Amino acid sequence: MARVVSVFLPTLPTDRIRRANPSLSPDTPLVVIARSGSKRWVAAADRAALKLGLRVGMPTAKAQALVQGLMMVDADPAADLAVLERLTLWALSQYSPVVAMDPPDGIVMDTEGADHLQGGEDLMLSGLVNRFRGRGLTARAAIADTWGAAHALARSTDRETVIIGGGETATAVKRLPLWSLRLPAEIVSSLHTLGFATVGDLSATPRAPLTLRFGPEIGRRLDQMFGRLAEPIDPIRPADLVEVHKSFAEPIGAPETIEKYITRLVGQLCQALEKRGLGVRRADLIVHRVDNTLQSLRAGTAKPVRDIAWLTKLFRDRIEKIEPGFGIEKLSLAAIIAEPLTEAQSESSFIEEHITDVTPLIDVLGNRGGQRIFRVAPVASDVPERSVQRIAPTADEDGATWPMHWPRPPRLLTRPELIEVIALLPDHPPVSFTWRGKRRRVKRADGPERIFGEWWKRSSEWLAIRDYFVVEDDTGERFWIFRSGDGVDAESGSQKWFLHGVFA
């Protein structure tokens, strides 16, 4: 069953303007003005403008009268569309092989079989919204079984993410307003006049009278929303994309036949990449079925490759996930991410007596769950939780090392945990401490190691101090604990104790 994500960018025009002008204060109300002849109205408004009572569709003169110092910028639909296209191409490289623009303010993607690479639907949607926020864009995202339902849910709520489980679409959309059906405004207005208020009201009405009066559009949108009529997504493609296709006069469906043609497509793709001096990092296989629906498989590699046998294996291992249905009429294979590759790939077997290259293992594990494969690397910071970062497993070394002048525990807690301590201030180690309900008597201790706050990152750390101790309890277990503050000055910290790590 398809799973469709709709991303709604409600303030895309104003977000675009603010990104182009970072010096613009977030408290300055900003609106985008559209015009038709002598008529001018608010086409988009940012959060600051909305808080002051401005609304989309409001006449410009009224908006100026309501808000003094209002910043107004003429609408530029072409620039908005260009930004939307760039965001859609970015989503294509990050989330799913089937991604398309949903103008004027949205992106749609089929994430069937791709959400596991992001840790599941919940993490995928929250991560997507957060990454848009990091780019200075307000976004809301919804996932459902159909494009129509996801589109309506993303635009009918103030929640950042909405997840509708498989088979629950009909129940979820019944209370949605009529405008969420993507019907022309005049039809929605006429339906309101007739007493219809929600999608549920409309879906419970006999179809024939509605079709006779308004034409087939209402029935088509209802069927698309409820999944009775397919609404295929035509995936976006970059202008310089390396892609190969194979169409079939007679639909195919047997696994061995699918495998044979995938092997041929991989060979053609590698030849095309070789002519450009490129290697594939991420490849998408799009399966076009005779019922006008798409299915996709994505394979990623840790480094650029053109090895036909290896790329074929990455797809062959997942052929069982392809559901041909009534048959497959076309296969497309595209190198979504390609990078320069000058050295020829070895044709020898990866199974050797001494395996020195772990890239094949990374590829196999990464295609099962891409977010789980990483390597830790040091960061130049004395604050322990900031001294480590996750990087790609094949990333180049940058020469950074961890400080070795003081011992560090092999296990560092994600967040320091509050403990109860008996200790003599200001510089003495604890006599005993209680962690996770168990009281421990300290037999040996070493410290303190004083770590100062990084004032150049946050002003609140100007006077911050931590005093770390390595302590050993009467059972021989060793822990890394610290006191927030110097034990004297309240401005240096809360004077509370925390456990931050455990030694082997």
Automatic annotation (TrEMBL):
Residues 18-151 form the UmuC domain. It catalyses: DNA(n) + a 2'-deoxyribonucleoside 5'-triphosphate = DNA(n+1) + diphosphate. Its EC number is 2.7.7.7. Its cofactor is Mg(2+). It comes from the Bacteria. CDD domains: PolY_like. Residues 245-335 form the DNA polymerase Y-family little finger domain. InterPro entries: DNA/RNA_pol_sf (IPR043502), DNA_pol_Y-fam_little_finger (IPR017961), Rev_trsase/Diguanyl_cyclase (IPR043128), SulA_CellDiv_inhibitor (IPR050356), UmuC (IPR001126). The keyword DNA damage applies. The keyword Phosphoprotein does not apply. SUPFAM superfamilies: DNA/RNA polymerases. It is an enzyme of class 2 (transferase). Poorly processive, error-prone DNA polymerase involved in untargeted mutagenesis. Copies undamaged DNA at stalled replication forks, which arise in vivo from mismatched or misaligned primer ends. These misaligned primers can be extended by PolIV. Exhibits no 3'-5' exonuclease (proofreading) activity. May be involved in translesional synthesis, in conjunction with the beta clamp from PolIII. This is DNA-directed DNA polymerase. It comes from Rhizobium lentis.
